[in-house]
Every structure is written in structure tokens, then in C-alpha cells.
Amino acid sequence: MKWMHWFAVVMGGLLAAPVLASPVCATDDLNQRVCLESPARRIAALSPGATELAWAAGAGGQVVAVVAFSDYPPAARNVTSVGSHTRMDMERLLVLQPDLVIGWVTGNPTEQLATLREVGIPVFSIEPRSFEAVSQTIERLAVLAGTETEGVAEAERFRQGIAELRETYRNAAPVSVFYQVWDEPLMTVNGEHLIGEMVELCGGENVFSNLERLVPRISAEAVVAADPEAILAGGMGEENRHWLTRWRKFPSLTAVARNNLFFIPPSLVQRPTPRMLEGTRLFCEKLELARSRRSGEVRL
Asked: Are residue 186 and residue 268 in the same domain, yes or no?
């Protein structure tokens, strides 16, 4: 491809420059050892979550490329977008000459990530599946960006916040929960998903935790049969709550009868970033409200 030849010429000139710093290395979520001759100075973050994690690691100022919906922190909106996480504009990405790409294991096209590796760009693939993995990802990105002081501090802040919430709700009475990831088709998460850990921390019991797929498709009839005590959904966008209204057509549902239909801003729950601390706190508060409604007492 013409753009690959052009990019090889450009990168050849950059790689010929003398290297003064020490190499830095980290192992990604594909168990690949990624090494840079010096800390990254031009980072491409190929998911909204990767963008947030780069900033959390203290490397926001080094991010030169993002993808659609990378809207946090606000400064990320000013960074050049190179398409969506499902299809990047490769020519636009390569002209920005990244020296590190943060890829999303299950979200980015594998063939495009492979192409980036073929032309010599280091790709660090991430897929945090637990709260601890979020902290570890921040720390590893900080190593690659040379921002360990900021990254380690943020990772520890997140760890401590999650630990405090875990202790607060350690003995909370169980609440059966359905978390809705998507509307059409109707989708949820199983117990292996990071959101599943959030449900468990808050004393919730995911009614679909035993399904095989990480993000399974389900039917409305399956939800009715499971009869969750609380239904939580994020909707499509931070202020879009209409996904919850469909369930009011099923007045026999416990969640509907007790008005336990709760909106959670999706970016606080569905991105594996430190803002999950805020999302988990909100999630726990909603389940505590559901507990209070068992006796008719509503605590706001």
C-alpha cells in the first residue's frame, strides 16, 4: 500500500535520530512484552477508555490521537480523532507519527493493530477485567510514558477508594440485579465482566452472572423470568434515560413494582477507568435505595 511505503520512509528518518534515554518495558494484556527505546512522547489511544487511562497515568499531554467519543477529560476533545474504535483512518493515524499505540483487545480490529505492528509501531493492548487490573494498567502505561509518579499515585487512589467501598458494603443484604448494557439488541454482562465485580462489591447478585458470554444477548422474557429486584441501565449518552421506560410495561416485575429502575451515566460504569470509583459509589447507593424500599422507607 502506498501509505505504508510513505510511512516507512518517514519513520526511518525518526528512528535514525540518536536515542539518549533508557529503554522502558511493560507487559500488556495479551502477555506481550512491549519495549520502547525511550518513554513515549506521541501516544495514540484507540478507545475512549484508553484515552482516560492515558490521562490517569499522567500522560495526557503526550496523547496525539484519539477515537470517537473520547470526551473525558475535556482536554481530550481537542486531540485529533482518527475515526472510531472499530475502524481507524490508518492514513490519518500514521501521519501523526505515534511512538506508542494503546489498543483495545476486544474493541479494535485485529487486522489494523497487526498493520501498525508491521510498520514498526509498538502496540500496547489493554483489556482490564477487574478493579485491580485498572490500577495495574495505569501503572504500566505510566512506565511506558515516563510518568510513574503521577500514574502510581492515581492507581493507588483508585485502589484505596475501591477498598473503602468494599468494606462499607461487605455485609450488605443481597439485591438481585439486572444491568442493561444495550437496548437493541438487549444485552447484559456476566459475572466475569468488570461490571459484574461492581455489582458484587455493592452487595448485588447479577441475575445473568452464569451466562457464558462476557456480554450476552438476552430477551425481555428472560428478564421477566429472572424478576430482578433492581434494574440499572446507562442508556446511549450521559443524559438518555429512555432505556428504563420499556420495563414499565411489565408491572409484575419486582423492580418496577418498587420503582427500582435506576439510571447510571454509562461512562462511569462501562469504561474501565478510575471514574469507575464514582460509578461504583453511585451503583452502591442505588442498591441501598432498593434495600430501603423493601419496608417502604425511602432514604435518598
From this structure: yes
The verdict on residue 12 lying in a domain is no
Cell numbers linked to 223:
428478564
Provide the residue type at 187 as one letter: M
What's the pLDDT at 15?
47
CB 28 within 8 A of CB 133: no
The helix or strand, by DSSP H or E, that contains position 4, with its residue range, turns out to be: helix 2-15
Q: Last residue of a domain, which of 102, 131, 159?
A: 159
For residue 9, the model assigns a pLDDT of: 47
pLDDT of residue 22: 79
Does 183 reside within a domain? yes
7's CB contacts (< 8 A; 6+ apart) are 94, 119
- Any domain includes 3: no
* Beta strand 123-126 pairing with 100-104: parallel
Q: Give the mean model confidence (pLDDT) for residues 225-236.
A: 90
Q: Is the pTM of this model over 0.90?
A: no
Mean pLDDT of 16-41: 85
What is the number of other CB atoms lying within 10 angstroms of the CB of residue 67? 26
Mean pLDDT along residues 32-46: 97
Q: How far apart are CA 45 and CA 101, in angstroms?
A: 6
The answer to whether 36 and 23 are in contact (CB under 8 A) is: yes
